Amino acid sequence: MFPSLIFYIFIISNFGGFGEFRFLHFPSKCRYVRTPQKRIRRRYLKGSLKSRLEQFQSGWSGASYDDETGSAKQVIAKLLTSTGRAGLVGNHMKTKRMEGAKLKWFTALYEAVSGAENEDVAEYYRLLAQTGIDYAVNEHNSRLLRNFAELYYEACSACGDGKKPEDICRYIMGVSESRKVKVPEMKEKTQLEAVVEYLGKVTEEAGYGRQQPLWLPVLPKSLPLSSLDGYVARTYGDGQWPVQEAHWELKAMVGLWDDPANQIQTPFILNFAQDGNHAVCGTSMSGKSTFLQTVVYSLIQRYSPDYLNLYILDFSSRMMEPFEEDVHVGGILYEGDLDTVGKLFHMLQSMIQERKALFRGGNYYQYVSKNGVV
């Protein structure tokens, strides 16, 4: 005779025919959607939730940034349009700064090439990285570095001994421009990068903390149950089962779920006492058996055998077999155990009749709330 007031869980694996659940994945980034050309400077920001589109004004922010534009007042040239307006304006100070920056860049290249032990492009990349220059490694840049190296050795021969690095760099600058030889170009700070840098500096000076992102991180592909908040405190440990709450329920913490609308990620809990039966649906190899393994493991770690017995029907790939020796498990039946399956359903019928008489119109949850688990 089986104890009538123990909560029994019967798990049927791979019973089939239930259809499929599809879980939506919300990306952590907005999508930038271009509009037709007739709407220049109009863009749409696509949010991840319900694909909502918001139109906003946009402008090109990839132009080079000059942080001293306001101090350069000495105009050296003006290009007038047909209407008499200034279409292009140049100034002496800006030209000098650009020449100085270019010379500084050529000096860095000079140090990399002259400091190399051999004429190896990989050595040039390494020496540039040591000076803090982030120069992408690719075939195009390698070809430009070789061009610079050839001009360097030519400059050394042309300038002779005793020439300063600045003289050699200026020689390379002049020859590359006159012959139209392509050499590595200095990466300039864009307006967008300048804005991001300025905002970062302002927030740091003002002491602003890290703000909550628009979206929480994407859920991991896998994670241990022990990493879930509150799981370890409610599981078997140090030879003792956790004390059950006065408002007793049968719950299994089985994963982490994402709620983008409310910006929360919390443990996913199955409540059998409150919600009753559950069906796990999905196509082949979608993770149904793994999910059922997780449910069983979570239950037997949380409740003692006095509270919980498990009877499992495994008609799949015997993935429930590791639980056969657990004290909670009364038995695991496979597709070849036809006689035993029949006996199990006969036992179920007997238990249903017994509990109908015991609960008297109520249910197991109501009975336990009033009388406790015996």
Keywords:
single chain, 374 residues, alpha/beta, 2 domains, three-stranded parallel beta sheet, 9 helices, 10 strands, disordered N terminus
Can you characterise this structure?
The protein is elongated, with a radius of gyration of 36 Å. Helix 1 packs across helix 2, helix 1 crosses helix 4 and helix 3 packs across helix 4. With 374 residues, the chain is an alpha/beta fold. The protein is built from nine helices and ten strands. The chain is 36% helix and 17% strand. The strands form four sheets. A three-stranded parallel sheet has the order 1-9-10, with helices on both faces. The protein has two domains: 157 residues, P-loop containing nucleotide triphosphate hydrolases (Rossmann fold), CATH 3.40.50; 122 residues, no CATH class.
